[in-house]
Amino acid sequence: MKKVLSGIQTSGRLTLGNYIGAIKNFVELQETHESYYMLADLHAITVQQEPAALRSYIEEVALLYVASGLDPDRSTIFLQSSVPSHAEMGWLLTTIAYLGELERMTQFKDKSFGKESVGAGLFTYPALQAADILLYNPDLVPIGEDQKQHVELTRDIGHRFNTRYGELFTLPEPLIQKTGARIMSLDDASKKMSKSSPTPASYILMLDPPEVIRKKVSRAVTDSGREVKYDPATKPEISNLMTIYTHCSNLTFAEIEAKYEGQGYGNFKKDLAEVIVATLLPIQQRYEELRSSGSIYDILRKGAKEAEAVARPVLLEAKKRMGFINL
Ligand code: AQP
């Protein structure tokens, strides 16, 4: 069985972009792969987090993983901070990564742009991410488009380690879906829908109530003209909404175009809101049930144990190869 590992930063409340670009795939992959899904809470603090907010984001992401269909009996679901091998391996790989490589990361450039002071962790976190991945020797890392560069860096760091100290790490391939790998903002299709955006109108949260979803979709920016047509180059806003539609309904772009031919944007947007609501509502219901059952911490404890059992021997072997003495 091939192995997959991926994760989501607990840096905010999850958006429909996180669902379509990541979680939906995680759920499908667990059927056919040995699966490890992490909550990247150590990554979340690369930008300052208010402690109570961080705690609530961690809990929400964990509940949404399981409510969306991740099964703790099939997938190892764990908190990054609860598996100490990650931070330790992260340091080892920080010493192997080059400054120039980290400087080239576009996510660092985007997130640090215009900021007066930027935490050092924001700069070095791709080395920790390499550790997160390499510790499990996965074959595949399912990600959205924006994370591709980080997986490439992981491969470079893993290859450098293997060359210096002997083959240890599998070099994983990124797994990026053809559509939906980059869901854009509702108010500006040139920007990615992002959970840390300061503009709530730019995103749909997985836990937004139906009436909020309807309002946000009705206010989503559309291109000039009236035609519902998938053409990202000339109609980026409508194409983004159609991408969301196809992922929430299983209709193809051609079927959506045919359905709304000659009708303008109004009916399309109304139906789009309903397919999003129909996708998220069952998840929201399971989220509430799971939250009141209080079982999520047991799931995370079980996941931490399973993950550490895989990660620890790899860490110890890496240390031994580098010349450390494991007492
Ligand atoms: N808009 C998106 N469309 C498709 N995929 C997306 N992902 C995130 N946003 C979109 C994918 O979700 C996974 C988890 O992302 P992450 O939280 O670890 O980091 P991120 O890419 O930085 O996500 P955000 O929402 O933009 O978070 P913040 O605002 O905290 O930086 C990844 O596979 C990502 O590609």
How would you describe this structure to a colleague?
The protein is mainly alpha-helical and 327 residues long. It has two domains: 3-176 and 294-322, Rossmann fold, CATH 3.40.50.620; 200-288, Tyrosyl-Transfer RNA Synthetase (Orthogonal Bundle). The protein is 54% helix and 8% strand. The protein has 13 helices and five strands. The chain has helices at residues 16-29, 41-44, 51-67, 85-94, 99-103, 106-112, 120-134, 148-165, 210-219, 236-249, 253-259, 266-293, 296-322; strands at 3-9, 34-40, 75-79, 140-142, 173-175. Strands 1-2-3 form a three-stranded parallel β-sheet. Strands 4-5 form a two-stranded parallel sheet. Helix 8 links the parallel strand 4 (140-142) and strand 5 (173-175). Helix 3 packs across helix 12 (266-293), helix 4 packs parallel to helix 13 and helix 9 (210-219) runs antiparallel to helix 12. It starts with a strand and ends in a 5-residue tail after the last helix. The mean pLDDT is 96. Adenosine-5'-tetraphosphate binds next to strand 1 and helix 1.
Number of domains: 2
The geometry reads as globular
What's the CATH C level of the largest domain? Alpha Beta
- Using only CA atoms, what is the Rg? 21 Å
Range of strand content: 5-15%
| Ligand set | adenosine-5'-tetraphosphate
Q: Treating each run of at least 4 consecutive H or I residues as one helix, how many helices?
A: 13
Give the biggest beta sheet: 3 strands, parallel
**Strand order within the widest sheet?**
1-2-3
Mean pLDDT: 96
Give the proportion of residues in helices. Answer: 40-55%
CATH architecture of the largest domain: 3-Layer(aba) Sandwich
CATH topology grouping of the largest domain = Rossmann fold
In whole angstroms, the N-to-C terminal distance is 33 Å
The CATH homologous superfamily of the largest domain: HUPs
| Uncertain stretches | none
Order of helices and strands: EHEHHEHHHHEHEHHHHH
Record field, number of beta strands? 5
